[in-house]
Amino acid sequence: MSELIRQVVNVLMDLIKVRTVALPGENYLEVVTYLDNLMTSYGLGTRIIKVPKSVVKEHYPEFADYPRYILLAELCNVRDKRIHFNAHYDVVPGGSGWLVTEPFKPVLINGRVYGRGASDDKGGVTALVLLAERLSELGEFHGCVEFSFTPDEEIGGESGVGYLINQIRKPDYAIVAEPTGLDTVWIGSMGILQLDVIVRGVSSHASQPWYGTNAFEDGIKVAYALIKELKPKVESRQFMGERATITLGGLARGGVSRNLVPDYFQFSIDRRILPSESIEHALNEIMSGIDNLRNNIKSTVEVHIVNKIEPAISKESTLLTKLMNAVKNVLGMNPKVTISRVPVDTRYLQNMGIDSLTYGPGNVSSAHGPDEYINVSDIVNAVNVYTELIRNIYDK
Ligand SMILES: [Zn+2]
């Protein structure tokens, strides 16, 4: 085993052993202190940012007593373009079904490290740690590179990158090291709009239903109209090979007894939004689909927005050209450029107009499930690509 490989394995295993499961979000200070010690030992300037309790409380009220920390580190020798590298250190729960090891007891087998977070996203964190070390060893490094290690990506990122982005100087470029795999770049991500449609009628006994207004039957008419008219229109839309979707009835409830006309019915809508669409447009389409029906039903219909996350994209990315070149030079291939079907923290940077991309070691298919792993060579290759990218940016 080479010294570099040994170092990758050691750092990654140390990180996996710290249970940084969101939620609730435990041991965050422990992992941030570990990373701070490493970055400081490489000579980087660091800062630990404590996320205000009020921010945590706003987004995750039950977990406000678990403190959130962000590690910022920088190696900046020139007044030139600033590039930011980010990875998140929180993980999803260990879960069941593991065969190779237990989730927080990492093992190395045939060049792969197994453990929760190996791919998502402690492999990314490890790559950035090694990148920092490599840059610090280049005596004549001329550049301005900033690193952040953030919590809570797995629960929306509001108290991670979402908070950080307003605390730092706006970088010119950013790379978020999520497990896209080194053959794929995510230039954007899909958004989400989740709604509850609430239908209210009037109850009466089923022996004399004419005294009532049936909220269920009216709700079904609304749902059917959306399925028939809106769904085909939405699901024919594509962007970079990905399709918009609308899913009805993931949650549905109403009615209390067989012999009563139900005065209440509700069903959910989950709409996945392409970067070529917008939340506003998606909402308007659904609302006008419902409005068209209002005259045909007696019940009232309200729509409640439960969750919304904007889609995001880096338009006309010059960083993309530089990254494509770096991948080609280091790995000898042209990576696939696409979008993520789920939101990633990169969106916070992209929505502030920062030229940002998601690119990192690991694979999404292995993330979140049992026997999550990463190929150690993937992490080494990622460090090589990032180093080449930085060279592309500062060598003119
Ligand atoms: Zn992730």
UniProtKB/TrEMBL annotation:
Highest taxon, organism lineage: Archaea
SUPFAM superfamilies: Bacterial exopeptidase dimerisation domain, Zn-dependent exopeptidases
Keywords: Cobalt, Hydrolase, Metal-binding, Zinc
Matching Pfam families: M20_dimer (PF07687), Peptidase_M20 (PF01546)
Named cofactor requirement(s): Zn(2+); Co(2+)
Similarity comment text for this entry: Belongs to the peptidase M20A family.
Protein name as annotated: Probable succinyl-diaminopimelate desuccinylase
Organism (species): Vulcanisaeta distributa (strain DSM 14429 / JCM 11212 / NBRC 100878 / IC-017)
